[in-house]
Protein 1
Amino acid sequence: MDIYHVYCDLKPGVADLAFVDGLNAYLGHLRDRDLIAAWRITRAKLGFGLRGMGDWHIMLEVRDLAQLEAAFQTVASRRDPVEGFHFGVNSLVQNPVFALTRDFPDAARHRGEERF
């Protein structure tokens, strides 16, 4: 699995549960169209977040980069209904930071070929 990470803060005045409801609707829409495999939403607890990364951490799991690219292309089309979901969530956040990681080792990593 590849994991697309989004770290962010909410804009002032945004209700946390409204954000989560909108995010779940958006990501559920993507999952129902096989554009992501799963997602997880977390929030820093007791102020113990990563410095500079925001209070919120959203993880989108995709099978591979082809699935992630298909999701990006769908969202980039700016067509409804996905645009409504995306704008509805994107308009609530500030200071986003993005990362892409993978399970390790994965199928691409062959043992015995290590370099030290």
Note: The beta strands are 2-10, 38-43, 56-62, 93-102.
Protein 2
Amino acid sequence: MEPVAIVTALILVQYVTFGFMVGQARGRSGIKAPATTGDPVFERHFCAHQNSLEQMVATIPALLLFGYYVNAQIGAVIGVVYLIGRSLYYRTYVAEPASRGPGFAIGFLATVILILGGLAGAGWQWLL
């Protein structure tokens, strides 16, 4: 399970990094907390960060389930694919929100595979 633990930590590091990027965008825009509107670039950073949180809530438990019930190495690889997808998603959302589709699709597909694999693996173990 060590590969899964490492990738889980990397997902958390990515999320925290996105948070720092939101803070930097807030500083550049001059938008004072708690406001979250008023500058389109800051708003894109903020939304990309929040969308990443929404996706992470499903991905981390799914990664842990997949790693435990199916295969930790394969789960870790799928987790890295998720990381790549979210990084692409964040960059493209900030640059041009309409171009975020491929990054979203990569990360979402990785999450779906982890969820379904973890569910199938747990179900299989339960039946045995």
Note: The helical segments are 2-29, 40-69, 72-95, 101-127.
Protein 3
Amino acid sequence: MRFPIVLETMAQLGWPESSAVPLGIVLLIATLLYLVPRTSILGAVLLTGYLGGAIATHARIGSPLFTHTLFGVYVGIIMWTGLYLRDPILRSVFPAR
């Protein structure tokens, strides 16, 4: 689906329209991996990389720091905190003490 807002935003960020669908597919796959308990750590790692690309894109074009550029950091912190709270294996590797 080619939503006009997505195509406009892609143009503002300097991405070609043709990359919207592949980026969406990558995001969907990484999110599904994050949601499945057996693959959640892999999904979190992939989403962290994806968010890093978003941060780099916003830094490159000079977006506002706290509202746009660091938004990926905020999402990443929430994502990893949620995973830490729901995954006992991750808690055993990184104990809270």
Note: The chain has one domain: 21-93.
